[in-house]
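Two proteins were folded this term; both appear here.
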Amino acid sequence: MQEELLDDSSPTDYSSDGDEPLLSGTGEVSKNCSIAQLDEWQGILHEWYQDVPEKRPKALTALVRSGIPEALRGSVWQRLACVENRKEMFDSYRVLITKETSCETVIQRDINRTFPAHKFFKENGGTGQENLYKVSKAYAVYDTEVGYCQGLSYIAASLLLHMPEEEAFCVLVALMYNYGLRDMFKMGFESLYLRLYQLNRLMKDQLPDLYEHFAQMGVESHMFASQWFLSLFTARFPLYFVFYILDVFLLDGIPVLFQVALTLLSTCRKDLLELDFEGILKYFRVTLPKKCRSETQAKRLMKLSFECKVKKLRKYELEYMAKKEEKNRKEQELKQYEQRYGEERAKLQHEISTLNEKVEQMVREDRKSAGIIQDYKHIIQRQETDNGRLHTMLDELTSDLCAGASAPLRHPTSSYFFSPLEAASPYVGNAMRYPHKSAASGIHQSEDKEKEIAQTKEQRTKRDDGDGDYDEDDDDDDDDDDSRRHRRSSDAYGWKQHAIRGD
C-alpha cells in the first residue's frame, strides 16, 4: 500500500518542470478552516492551561496528527514548545540582536537562498529577510557553542511564517535545546551520526532489500538523510508537508524524523531499487520532493508515518554507544601503544646514535692504527733493506778476507808479520756468530781499541815526562809490555785500515 501511495501523481505534479530541484518555500498553504475544527480546537486550547503547558489534554495528540489549522499553527506551536508569552525571552531577544557575531557574513549569505520561492522572503532586503537575519543572528549570539549552522535558517523561516520574530526566536531555542536538535549541530556531529546509525538499523530491519541495494551502489544514509534531520525536512520539501512534519515533531519529538524518513523510503522503494548511485541521489534531490507537493499526498504520507514502528530506537542507541565505547577503547589503546612505541623508538634512536658515535670513533682509531702499522711497515722495510745491504757488505768482506788468507801481512809501522785471517778473526767470528749484527760492530770494537791505545800512550807520555829515576829492569819490563801492546794495537790498526781500504 505504501509503495502505491505516490504513484497516483500525474507527470505534471512532479516531473513536468524537468531536472531542476524544487525551490525551498514552494507551495501555498490555505488558511481556511471549518467551524467544526475551530470549535474542537477552541475546546482543547481552553482545557490546555497556559500556566501548565506540559500537561497536555488527552485529545491533543489525535488533533495534532490530523493537522493543525493554518490559522492556529503559530499559537499551538508555541504552546507545544512551552514558550508561550515568555516575556523574559522577548527581552533577551531584543538585546541579542544588537550584539555582533562572527557568523554575520554566513547568515547573510544563507538568507538569500532560504525559501526563495515564497513571496515573504523573495525580496532582497525585505521584511522577511530582515526578520530572518535577526532571528538567526540572535540565536548565534545566544548559543555561542553551536553558533549558526546551515539549516537553521530554514527552520527559522518556517516559524516566521506563523508568528512574530520574538516568538519565532523562542520556539527556535526550544526546538534546539528541548527537542535534541541542538546536539546534532554540535562540533563533531556526534548526535547526527547516532541518528544516521539508527536509521540504517531500521532500514536493515524493515527495508532489507533497499538497504542492500544502497550498500551495493555505495549510497550512505548521510548523503540524503543529514539534511532531512538537521533542517527537519524544511530545506527540500513543499511547505504543506513541512508544516505538517513540524506539527507532529513539536508533539512527539525525534522519533517523528525516523517515521517520516522510513515512510518516504518505503513509498519510493521500487523506484530506488532500479536506480544506480547517481540516479538515487538525483531522485532524493529532485524527484521525491516534487511527489509531495499536494496536500492530499502530504496527509497520506503523514498518516502512514504514524503506523511506522520505531520502538527499537533506544535499543539501537545503546548498541551505537557500546560500539562507540569499544571504538574509543581501541583508539585509547592504540594511542597508548603509539606513545609506548614513540618512547621505545626514541630510546632506540638514542642508542643507535650512541653506537654510531662509537663506531665512528672506532673507525677513526682503526684509521690511526692502520697509519701506524703502515709506518712500521715502512720502517721494517727500510731495516730489511739496510740489513740486506749490511749482509752484502759482510759477504764482500768475508770474501776479501778469504782471498787474502794465504798472504802474510806486515803492519806499516811494525816488523811483525801476521795472517789476515788471524787479524780479522775477532770481527769475522762475531759476524758469523751473530748474523743479525752488521760489520759496524767490528768497527766499533776497533774504535774501542784505538781509545785504549790512546789512553796507554797518554799514560806513557806522562811517565816519560817524570823525574827520570826509575829501575832499568822495570824499564825493560815496561819496554816488553809496551812492545807487546804496541804490536797488538799496530796490528789491529793496520788490519782496520786494510779492511776499510779493501786492500
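Next, the second protein.
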Amino acid sequence: MDNSIEAKTAHEKKIVGEMIRLYCRKKHGMKNSLCAECAALYAYALGKIDKCPFMKEKTFCSACKVHCYGQEMGNKIKTVMRFSGPRMLLYHPILVIKHIIVGMQTKENA
C-alpha cells in the first residue's frame, strides 16, 4: 500500500468526504449533492487537510497534538464523525479497513 504523504492526504480527503456525504444524506435528506452547510464544512476540512504539517506522522485528527479547526467547524466535524463513523463500516467497509491500516502503518513508522 502506498503510504506517501500524497496518497495519505488523498485517502484522508476521501474518508472525510464520504463521512460528510453520509451525514448530509441521512440528516439533511440530500441524495446527489451536499447542502450548503455540509459543502462549507467539506471545503473547510479539505483546506485543513491540505495545510496539515503533521500529515506524515499523524494517525487521525482526533489524536493530533494541535487542533486546527475553529470551534464552530470543530463541533460540526465532531458531530459528523460521531454519526458517520460507526455507519461507515456498513456503507464503505473497504475504505474503513484501509483507513485503519494506514493509521496502523503511520503509528509503526513514527
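The CA atoms of residues 58 and 64 lie 6 Å apart. Helices lie at 5-28, 36-51, 71-91, 93-109. These notes refer to the second protein only.
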